[in-house]
Design goal:
- The complex is a heterodimer of chains A (about 200) and B (about 350).
- With about 200 residues, chain A is of the alpha/beta class.
- Chain A is built from 8 helices and 6 strands.
- Chain A folds into 2 domains: about 50 residues, RecR Domain 1 (Helicase, Ruva Protein, domain 3); about 120 residues, 3-Layer(aba) Sandwich (Dna Topoisomerase Vi A Subunit, Chain: A, domain 2).
- Chain A has a 4-stranded parallel sheet with strand order 4-3-5-6. Chain A has a two-stranded antiparallel sheet with strand order 1-2.
- The longest helix of chain B is centred in the middle third of the chain and has 41 residues.
- Chain B has a 6-stranded antiparallel sheet, with helices on one face.
- The chains are: A alpha/beta (about 200), B alpha/beta (about 350).
- Chains A and B meet through α7 and α8 of A and α4 and α5 of B.
Chain lengths: ~200, ~350
């Protein structure tokens, strides 16, 4: 029987460590990988190794990239006076997809969390401070709206304010465009009301 | 709200149950360990996603079953509500009118209930944390922003306390967490203050009505007063906080005081007075919720008659508003305490099976 064999359990455990994968999905994925033709599992593992080898952190914005500096940092048409700070590459990807932002990014790779042993040294905060020069006009903090994301935003505004005096702004939280108020959750609505603007 | 039907499967010792109580007072009578409390507990779980007896769902599962299902249908002004609460193979799922809900804040308040159990005497004689839990639970059912502030406050407090224990704590880092304690703590204190005042207003007459004498007073004791500069208090206490490795000041230290005839009920009241005061708090909550949402929550009284003498019992029945639905458990099969004029349905429970009497 397959179950309880160490090799199977090891694979399931490894898959479970991936974000959004629970016990059942992990078992399903593991079973699929094991019952599919051998090349399929092999090509997946090769793809992972290859991607890990080629993709590194950009020396400037710390985002994931296959060349250094990354395409966005190297782009002459981007506004190099604006830096948008996000927790994870997924945040930068989301904003980039929206297409309305023409500045640069900075990826912290996490948020402050003493409980997980994450302080400023574990995040790409020094790298951010090194980027701030006279040409940077504004730092937009787009960390998540969690306790940790908010604390990180506040910490950045303190540190940047003290050392550079560069403007630090926080993205607004509001009602999704093109949808009715009734579809927004309570927290977002409350935030949107607090952050209302004069017409 | 009026509970129309309760279905349970695999919950505690209850047999697969389909229970349809009437309007007004419903008496569930049976001997000890037959499942009386479990019926109320099932409704409470569907309404709040929590049990009053345990924090572990495994305790709620019938022996040998993979989980439990609860379905509550209720009539509320305007629309009926159906809540499905399941805990199956370790996974908790809630549906409201068939739509899956992932957050507690989206569940609370859908089935407004007020629950009294004999252990609630601890509200009067127990520690402040028990009274805070009562405030938090009651206000969360009424004000979704309160629950959100509470969750964020708790998370920030945990993070700050952890930070205080670390060597690399700096002022800038503490500032980051302080700001959140202030933002969310301020919301909490404002809500607790308003709730406390209203509760005090309803608790005094509720106590009078059952005890037939005046004397219960309630006052909210915030650690940080409304309008006080909490940020500054945190700043002033930083050295002390670092020495203790925890946050000394804030709404997590709040309490409310109950006095009976001018003396603190916690130390000076008799057992009977303490029980009556605890019951008065719950009846006050019933009235308060009625005032806020223009509808009576369902009242559940677990084993309340064994706590009160005959006079107090019959006065209790007189204080239950006619429009409010009530589920009441008792070991007394004669239900002699129920006033003869009162419309009530009686059910008997034996080995987890419920039948109309």
């Amino acid at each position: 029987m397959l179950f309880n064999t160490p090799a199977f359990e090891q694979l399931v455990d490894a898959l479970r460590r991936l974000p959004g994968v629970g016990k059942r999905s992990a078992e399903r994925l593991a079973l699929h990988l094991l019952s599919a033709p051998g090349e399929e599992a092999l090509s997946l593992s090769e793809a992972i190794v290859e991607a890990r080898r080629r993709i590194t952190r950009c020396s400037q914005c710390c985002n994931l990239t296959d060349r250094d500096p990354c395409a966005i940092c190297a782009h002459p048409g981007r506004d190099h006076g604006l830096i948008c700070v996000v927790e994870h590459p997924s945040g930068a990807m989301a904003i980039e997809k929206a297409g309305a932002y023409k500045g640069l990014y900075h990826v912290l790779h996490g948020a402050l969390s003493p409980l997980e042993g994450i302080g400023p040294d574990e995040l790409a905060i020094d790298a951010l401070l090194r980027r701030i020069s006279g040409t940077v006009r504004e730092i937009i903090v787009a960390t998540n709206a969690t306790a940790e994301g908010e604390a990180t935003a506040l910490y950045l505004s303190r540190v940047i304010g003290q050392r550079f005096g560069t403007a630090v702004t926080r993205i607004a939280h509001g009602v999704p465009m093109g949808s009715g108020l009734e579809y927004a959750d309570d927290a977002t609505l409350a935030h949107a009301l607090e952050g209302r603007k004069q017409l | 709200m009026v509970l129309r039907e309760l279905h349970t499967d695999g919950f505690r010792c209850l047999a697969s149950l389909a229970f349809a109580p009437g309007r007004g007072v419903n008496v569930i009578s049976g001997d000890n360990a037959q499942g009386k409390t479990s019926v109320l507990e099932a409704v409470l779980y569907a309404a709040t996603s929590k049990s009053h007896r345990t924090n572990q769902e495994t305790d709620l599962v019938q022996h040998g079953r993979p989980g439990f299902r609860i379905r509550v249908t209720a009539q509320r002004p305007g629309r009926d509500v159906a809540v499905d609460a399941t805990w199956w193979h370790g996974e908790k799922r809630f549906k409201v009118n068939g739509v899956a809900q992932s957050r507690v804040s989206d569940i609370l308040g859908k089935l407004p209930v007020v629950f009294f159990s004999p252990e609630d005497v601890e509200l009067v004689r127990g520690t402040a944390s028990i009274r805070r839990r009562f405030l938090d639970m009651a206000i969360s059912q009424l004000e979704p922003p309160y629950l959100r502030a509470l969750q964020q406050y708790r998370q920030a407090l945990k993070q700050r306390n952890e930070l205080l224990k670390q060597d690399r704590v700096t002022g800038d880092l503490l500032d980051a967490w302080d700001e959140q304690l202030v933002r969310h703590g301020t919301v909490m204190v404002r809500s607790r203050q308003g709730f406390g005042q209203e509760l005090a207003r309803f608790a005094a007459p509720a106590y009078d009505a059952i005890a037939a004498r005046e004397g219960l007073e309630l006052s909210y004791l915030p650690d940080i007063e409304v309008g006080e500069d909490y940020a500054r208090v945190l700043l002033e206490n930083r050295d002390r906080d670092r020495r203790y490795g925890l946050t000394n000041r804030g709404p997590h230290r709040d309490d409310f005081e109950l006095t009976i005839e001018g003396r603190p009920a916690r130390q000076f009241a008799s057992q009977g007075q303490q029980r009556t005061a605890a019951l008065a708090l719950k009846l006050a909550e019933l009235k308060l919720v009625r005032e806020r949402i223009a509808e009576y929550p369902m009242l559940m009284l677990d084993d309340v008659l064994s706590e009160l003498d005959t006079k107090r019992s019959s006065r209790l029945f007189n204080t239950i508003p006619e429009e409010a639905q009530c589920l009441l458990t008792t070991t007394d099969l004669t239900t002699s305490a129920v006033p003869s004029g009162l419309a009530c349905s009686v059910f008997r429970i034996r080995n987890g099976a419920l039948t109309p009497a």
